Predict the structure.
Amino acid sequence: MAGHNTSQKLSSLMRQVPGETRDGGGNMNLRRQDFLLLLTLAAMAAATLAAGQDVAPADVQGAASIPDFSGIWAHLTWPDFEPPVAGPGPVTNRSRRNGVSDIYELVGDYTNAILKPHAAEVVKKHGEISLTRVPYPTPSNQCWPGGVPFVLYNIGMQMLQQRDKITILYSNDHEVRHVRMNQPHPVQLMPSWYGDSVGHYEGDTLVIDTAGIKVGPFAMVDMYGTPHSPALHVVERYRLLDYEAAKLAEERGQRELSRFGRDPGFARDPDYKGKGLQLEFTVEDEGVFTKPWSAAISYRRPLGEWPEMVCAENPHGYFPERHATVPTADKPDF
């Protein structure tokens, strides 16, 4: 229909071609120039209309190709990250129980070559405390924001995808991250608990770049007390894997990791044979690490619904005869 209307307009323009009569002022050439301009514009409009019939708008095509990471995901391993397939990996637990990481003794491997000497000493001291069976303070047991990548220890994660932003919810203590899509980091980056996160899609992969992570009183990148500096930079890459590929990745990455003995609300759905979510992330911090290192997390769809896990309302019981250092303010924020 659009093409037919355009043809009618062109025919009308053709009937308005000026004749050869001169008016003495040389306006014949001007009239022909005006006509040629109109004819060119009409042809461009026709081409645009024709193209519009066959090609969808770019933003619609882009939305159709974006992978769907939305919904609730879970992993029941704790406290370690999964090691990478190759290359430098995260600090892992030196203590073992039945061949896997001992969740009652968090003794980080301070000999890991990624650690600078002062960082190795910090990890070693945390391990010595844990060997006494007295837990040392962490962001999670002190009810403080965990930062990135520490927050990834959460066994439950929910991703909310929107066109211009992504919101990531974590199960413990209502931790939330906001990712701005297709935007650069600000030139003047103000440190914040979860840093400034910007994201984009590379084919079937969501890439999130985070910098400007605040160094708090219990700042660490993992459960072994590995510290970080203001230079911490984390890049996450999320992608969906078919059921069999997800199963293989999980078996490889989790064979030496400890799993929760009880279900905190995120047990795997045994009937779900759909895709799994694989997170691979890289960490660099020239103030703490000798080189960048990588780790992974294998997520699956859980059986239960989103449970509520609140830390700040229950500051008791983490340490003998002591309260957790729940965040407080000297004056109201509003």
Confidence is low (pLDDT under 50) at residues 1-61. The CA atoms of residues 63 and 163 lie 8 Å apart. The first strand starts at residue 71 and ends at 74.
